[in-house]
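User: Need the bound-state model for PTJ:
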Amino acid sequence: MVEIAADPTHPRYQSLLMRHRLEEAEKKGMLAGSALIAHGRGEAFDYLLGEQTVPSALKATHQALAYLLAAQRPVISLNGNAVALAGKELLHLADQLKCPVEINIFYRTPERMEALLSHLEQIKREESFDVEILGANPDARIPGLEGPRANCVRRGIFDSDVVFVPLEDGDRCEALMAMGKTVLVVDLNPLSRTAQMASVTMVDELTRVVANMNIALTNQPHPFVDDTFQNEDALSAVLVHIRDYITSA
Ligand code: PTJ
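Assistant: Bound-state model below.
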């Protein structure tokens, strides 16, 4: 696996690289027990998209980025899979947006929090990113959720107006929406509760989304919020793409 993941000419290079990143993160204790199952589900949907960023997903990504740029208090919420797959790129994005990141995990244990925090702190040091990494000391709770997964940081997720939550679960997405926030999610499954409920759903693979955001930030003008954007329409467009892609295969 390591040899193949190091060979960019291999036809499955990207997919193998992602799996390799997850394996490494697993060894460091960063991941939830179901992390690889969640990733496998994502891979299955990615096949149906042709493992590419479809036009409606790129449009949603630009809309999400526009919300982040226009926000008063933007925050990027990170879970185990997101940190494992794109920790460096997400910190780069936060650095450019000048917003904090907050580690906010579904299956919360002190050991995982420690592993994720120290992994991100190491990247921050190595890359000299100027990003506040929140999550170590939660001091607020997301209303409507029970147990440790409700924990969050007041000056991070709790007080944010726009929250970018790659790979969120349906309950928390709903709870964040109920708090009146603009919720931006990445989910390869256009039929998931999260995808259906969010303000903006990017039906695309996480690392492609973050790369597209970072590229868009290098171009001028930056994307602006499109008031005509409808998330249902973006989701319908993805489903049409999947149908056409499958029938042409
Ligand atoms: O680190 P934690 O404790 O917060 O747990 C993280 C996981 C992802 C394990 C947890 O949130 C979970 O169980 O998620 P679900 O409910 O399985 O949902 C994950 C969703 O993300 C699924 O709909 C997948 O299709 C999608 N997905 C998985 N990998 C990717 C993805 N979407 C985009 N890019 C991916 N790389």
